[in-house]
Amino acid sequence: MKRPVVIVSLLLGVTGCGTLPPARHLACTVATVRPNLAQRGSGTATLSVLTYNIEGLGWPARQGRAPRLAEIARYLATARASGTAPDIVMVQEMFSGAAKKAVLATGYPAIVSGPARTARTANAVSRKLPGRASLKRGETGFHLTGSGLAIASRYPIIASRSQPYGRKSCAGIDCLSNKGVMLARISIPGVPLPIDLYNTHMNSRGASKAPHARNLAAHERQALEASQFIDRTHDDSLPMIFGGDFNMRRAQDRWDNFTRHQPMTLVHRVCIDRSSRCEVRMSWDGDEPWIDTQDLQFFESGKAVTIRPIRVEAMFDGGPSAPALSDHDGFLVTYRIDWASDVERRPGCQMPLGRQ
Questions:
Q1: What does the alpha-carbon distance between residue 283 and residue 68 come to, in Å, rounded to a whole number?
Q2: DSSP string of 32-56?
Q3: pLDDT band with cut points at 50, 70 and 90 for residue 35
């Protein structure tokens, strides 16, 4: 990579530093109860989750993004007013000030962000990556932006936590941002137990400008660290959803590494089965459509409350759902949540993180 590209990357980091990551709190007692939700005994609910890389890069890496980011916000705010917006939005690439303002402007009453620029972790791989670090491609040892992650929720977020990936778990230009993984635990009125939502943005391939062996090893380390983070923070009695930009499109080696560390069920694999009772409202090509996208969702039922996808659709893809406003489409999944009459309801709105 030539020196001017490094300067561009440095300026990219600076453009987002002046705006704080979005945060908004919704008290657990003021959440709106769905009228069709059972309040006692067995019951069923639905939860819609959008994962969306909003291409929130700043100038000069991207120019003129502010109007489209504002349009994303307007679209979601209008959908919220009409009751058609996703219940949850998992955001990636929220780097620039305009991107952070757009997330707040969606109007979601509960918002938490992922690792900040200066966040550090002790839970990281310490071995060196293959090859040599290069200042020319951004492997400087310090970060210029935060993770770019956020989770916006219609429902109260009763606990949250985040962890950046290790300093030796990134490769190339990706190292300029403090990529990581985050958790938001939500409480849905009437549902006896909370739901854990995880969001991430993993190391890119060619866009990182790092050699293949180096960016592949970084991606595997991130898969391992994300899995360990989930193990430390997740309660097995709760359902779980893991979404984000996994950067595994057309990369079987990355898939092989990721699945060794993460055994959760891929939504695509369920919904491609016609007997699964999952409605597909988007165009899928071939027998393995998950290979053709970076944007994915995984899920796992809890011991007491089950969850399964019942509908998948694209959003912000230029179709009837919404205009194309990023270099990614949004991936929207609607889940069905079920519980039996004998499920013990957890009192109050607070619940400690980790295995119970």
A1: 24
A2: PPPTTS-SSSSEEEEEEEEEEEEEE
A3: very low
